[in-house]
Design brief:
The protein is α/β, with parallel strands linked by helices and 503 residues long. 31% of the residues lie in helices and 25% in strands. The strands form six sheets. The chain has a nine-stranded mixed β-sheet.
Length: 503
């Protein structure tokens, strides 16, 4: 297999009339989704192949049609958050170059506001195109498994989003593992929580494509009304979820299962940030004993996941869950600061070698060379590996334990956040002399601290809001007279973290 669409075609041949994708407005069969995707591909043919297609459509079945349409056209897609600040969308589009934008009527005004001489294809028009069978077949014949399937943008330390390039090969390799490990099949009904521009969405979406599952897009507002959320899960007979811990914790914090329980749930997967054991224990102790719970761990640069832990024992509320062991066809190892491999119990940086790995960062060779490096443990032949920046160690059970990020990048509410991007937004405000963003993990607070003549923190926040999406907004903004410095003349972030409550 060299193209992920081969999974789609095999599944559609098996289950043409089975509903594969749902949202609040549509229940789309595999055959209907394929037809729409191929029509969209035909509409894109006039712009060439192997080009970036920016999908400016909210999370719906229509968005999925457009994503697959880009793949059928021999292009690669980039799902763009239509609720992001205009500056961030423009930064993404400027990084891509030579982009085709596909949007729907709901987001057409946004697309016209952010385009820079880029062509805009309207979804509602594209799905009425004739399917150009011969041209689409010819495109497929010339594609290889190393062709790019999509790009996912994460935060960048310079304040500019960073695009991770994932090939069909990496996607196929990862999906083969996850579907085999968790035994997904045509009876699997996913309740999708994560955005389609977030790497976690790869697991349930492409498992659906390969196995004939049903991918149900849960309306975002239901996570503010958890009883309705469980009712929705029961209505759609959802038996498998893959959510960020924040979403899982909502139901724990409200003790929703004391009132109503999910009737069909069999598999609960989570990733994106540390899962609070106390909240997980509520699920384990109040739901069916036959439910599988698993902690998945990995960066966007490994398609989605590189290690996992299936919960097989009880944990106290103040214990930490392991991140487990490597996935099949994915090897991980720990390297200490001196470049040698860590022994059991020793801390070091997690490295990954696998076909799950991304190809690098789009139009960013410097960052690519920093992160995708020669295996430091192999001096004999070229072997490319990925430096995750995560500090880990093995416990006495041979399980990987996550400790922290190596840099200032954090994971919160399932999103990877580079504190430098928040700082870049604040620094863009006239009158700011200096600033630093810190994360108090214990309090789960993002705190932006600045020095400058601006007294109203609302003014600083206005600058941040223009640059970053809502999940990166700081919880507190504090003004100080002078930013503390360490011995190297750098901002003393450790001091700020320890003392910000006294400011």
């Amino acid at each position: 297999m060299k193209n992920i669409l081969e999974c789609f075609e095999a599944t559609t041949a098996r289950f043409p009339d089975k509903v594969g994708f749902t949202d609040v407005n549509r229940r789309s069969t595999f055959l209907e989704t394929m037809r729409r995707a191929r029509k969209i591909a035909s509409a894109l043919l006039g712009y060439g192949t192997k080009k970036p297609v920016a999908v400016l459509i909210d999370k719906t079945c229509n968005c999925i049609d457009a994503m697959f349409g880009a793949l059928y056209a021999g292009d690669f897609y980039i799902v763009v958050d239509v609720h992001s600040p205009k500056d961030r969308i423009e930064n993404i589009l400027s990084t891509l170059h030579d982009t085709i934008i596909i949007t729907d009527k709901d987001s057409l005004e946004l697309a016209n506001n952010v385009k820079n001489n880029q062509p805009v294809v309207l979804y509602e028009n594209a799905i009425n195109f004739d399917i150009y069978e011969e041209q689409l077949l010819n495109i497929r014949k010339h594609m290889i498994d190393m062709d790019t399937a999509y790009i996912l943008f994460t935060s960048g330390s310079t304040g500019k989003p960073k695009g991770t390039v994932i090939s069909h090969r990496s996607l196929i390799s990862y999906v083969n593992w996850v579907t085999d490990e968790f035994k997904f099949d045509e009876t699997t009904s996913f309740g999708s929580q994560t955005p389609l521009y977030f790497s976690m969405s790869v697991t349930d979406l492409y498992s659906t494509l390969k196995c004939g599952c049903c991918y149900n897009i849960i309306p975002k507002q239901y996570f503010s009304f958890p009883i309705n959320l469980v009712k929705y899960m029961n209505e759609y007979k959802i038996n498998t979820i893959y959510w960020v811990p924040t979403a899982i914790s909502i139901l724990s914090n409200w003790k929703v299962f004391d009132v109503i329980k999910p009737e069909y749930l069999k598999t609960v997967l989570f990733a994106g940030e540390v899962m609070p054991t106390k909240q997980l224990n509520y699920w384990i102790n109040t739901l069916d004993n036959n439910i599988t719970f698993a902690n998945l761990f990995g960066p966007t640069e490994t398609t989605d996941i590189c290690t996992f832990y299936i919960v097989d024992r009880k944990f106290a509320d103040d214990d930490s869950l392991p991140i487990g062991k490597h996935c099949d066809n994915c090897n991980v190892f720990i390297v200490k600061e001196d470049g040698t491999e860590a022994k059991d119990g020793e801390e070091g940086e997690l490295f990954v070698r696998s076909t799950f790995m991304a190809d690098g960062y789009y139009n960013n060779p410097e960052k690519t060379l920093e992160a995708f490096v020669q295996n430091p443990l192999n001096k004999s032949y070229p072997e490319r590996v990925y430096k995750t920046g995560d500090i880990v160690k093995y416990n006495d059970k041979g399980e990987l334990i996550y400790i922290s990020r190596k840099d200032f990048q954090i994971k919160r509410s399932g999103y990877r956040i580079e504190l430098g991007e928040i700082e870049a937004g604040a620094n863009s405000v006239e009158g700011i002399k200096n600033c630093a963003c810190i994360y108090d993990k214990q309090e789960d607070l993002l705190v932006l601290i600045y020095e400058g003549k601006i007294k109203k923190t609302e003014t600083v926040m206005a600058g941040v809001i223009k640059k970053v999406p809502s999940y990166m907004y700081p919880d507190k903004v504090l003004r100080i007279k002078e930013m503390p410095q360490n011995a190297n003349g750098k901002i003393d972030r450790k001091y700020l973290l320890q003392n910000y409550k006294n400011f």
